[in-house]
Amino acid sequence: MSSQLSNVRPSVTIRPDLVRIASWIEPNTRVLDLGCGDGTLLAHLRDHKNVDGAGVELNDQRMIASVRRGLHVIQQNLEEGLALFDAMQFDSVVLSQTLQSMHHTEHILKEMARVARFGIVSFPNFGYWTHGWSILRGRMPVTGEMPYQWYNTPNVHLCTLKDFQDLAASLNLRVTHLATFNGNHEVRFLPSWRSTLAVYRFESPNWTADTRS
């Protein structure tokens, strides 16, 4: 009995936005999670969808936490690109709540489109209505999705939903899905104004049936 229990993996509780991301990923596919943190999403996909996953994480403690979950993780700075990975090596590549902290936004999106058919990104929505009110009062916004002060924030490229859609179009990334959240609640009415977090799924312009190995 004890040996059987030792082989049972503990259940992983994940945020609603990660649940939505997981719903867009097909079972038995290959997934790359960029900035995978402690491996919560990859562990969920492995346990519930039999996904063959890999992660990239720079932080030492988060990488160790991912490895302890039995995940394959590479320690690397995402700003250096994804040269370690072949074209269309994955079915989906995820960049969750990290896009806004990237210095080379276009480059990472192009790299995502190179290594996988589908890319999934999430980022704080700078168009949330209270942000405008904060600016009118002469202050930079501070919210749950953007909890930092102007002088210590890691966020260097904030954008609205429309901003991202324009960038995706300029890079020929075809948006296939959009979900928006405010805290733990998914927002469907006036998302550009009422959501604090946006999650997009796009298809790579580089993918054809012949490119998949």
CATH superfamily annotation: Vaccinia Virus protein VP39
- Domain tally: 1
Unreliable runs: 1-8
> CATH class, anyone?
Alpha Beta
Q: What is the total tally of β strands?
A: 8
CATH topology: Rossmann fold
Mean pLDDT score, rounded? 88
CA-based shape: globular
Beta content comes to 15-25%
Rg from C-alpha positions? 18 Å
Which class do the helix and strand fractions yield?
Answer: alpha/beta
Multimer state: single chain
What's the SSE pattern? HHEHEHEEHEHHEEHE
Keywords for this entry:
213 residues; alpha/beta; Rossmann fold; 8-stranded mixed beta sheet; disordered N terminus
In brief, what are we looking at here?
The protein is α/β, with parallel strands linked by helices and 213 residues long. It has 8 helices and 8 strands, in the order H-H-E-H-E-H-E-E-H-E-H-H-E-E-H-E. The N terminus is likely disordered.
What's the structural blueprint in terms of helices and strands?
Blueprint: H1 2-6, H2 16-23, E1 30-34, H3 40-49, E2 52-56, H4 60-68, E3 73-74, E4 90-96, H5 105-115, E5 116-124, H6 129-136, H7 161-170, E6 174-182, E7 185-187, H8 191-194, E8 197-203
